[in-house]
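Incident log, entry 3
Record: Cysteine desulfurase (380 residues)
Problem: checksum mismatch between cached and fresh output.
Input:
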Amino acid sequence: MAYFDAASTEPPHPSARDALIEALGSAWADPARLYGMARRSRMLLDRARADVAAELGARPDEVFFTTSGTQAVQLGLLGVFRARRRAGRHVVVSRVEHSSVLHAARAAEAEGGEVTEVGVSRTGRVDPAEFAAALRPDTAVACLQSANHEVGTVQPVEEVAAACREAGVPLLVDAAQTIGRAPLPGGWSALAGSAHKWGGPAGVGVLAVRKGTRWRSPLPEDERGYGRVPGFENVAGAAAAAAALRARAAEMAAESARLSALVDRIRAEIPARVPDVEVQGDPVHRLPHLVTFSCLYVNGEALLTELDREGFQVSSGSSCTASTLQPSHVLEAMGVITHGNVRVSLPRGTPAEAVERFLDVVPGVVGRLRESMRGSGVSG
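Fresh output:
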């Protein structure tokens, strides 16, 4: 079996497993207490925060752990929105943000806010000038992903950050797909991530808020989590997340270059071997491990099922299934094919042989499905 769905969740890094097991045995005591075992837990939690902060280019007191990347995004956007209500209640996001961002923006809208969604090009990339034009004197917060989760397009965060800085608007960056995989952009006011995306454990998110950025937790007050995230801290999870991120940072340059070459091969070979295929996302400004393509005249759900039978675990940017009947909002915003969609995202250590076998298998699978659909008179 070849696991090609790292954009959903990266397999646990060995460093994370080791750190998690060690912490579960030695740092399970309450880090808020004063006795020796508790102090050991506090030291491990503080070390994890400092290690993550170093990788994000932040100060330790600017970083805190959440229960997920989704919660980090929600706390980041709504926290800035509520803290800056006197400045205004306008929110700017891109149209291709992760659903967690769009849902948080809708929550702000329900509290009296107004949301502007900035469009993207056919490659899924925001125009910095268009984003800057959407900013207003009453804009409370803006949000732009570092890279798209469905097609891998890297966004011009630093150019947008410069426009936000000039307008006096804090910029929240959803960096879930970038942390541990590519260098992080600068200029952000707040940044969110998710540990299981870089090989850490699920259930651990990270939110960094720069000093000087007005932010107030939208959650009820609690004496824990520095008043930011209520509840008992997940010390073992934080330690494992930090260990995985340190390891990924050490490997990043070499492994990203290797995976990028494999993705380049997929981008070139799939349309060469399979007719009526559209490869999506920016070919240059892209994540190193992710490629998405759509096949005309093929049902996306059937395509994923057949690839699974062939030993390839991939996902789809399109959610056009019997349960939702809704195409991907990202692909719709880009104006590209929304059906017959396959997202391939390679985890660390993916062998070149697995990619070559994938390239050999896909043409036959697509051909069989198209023949079957022609025979049944069903379109994709």
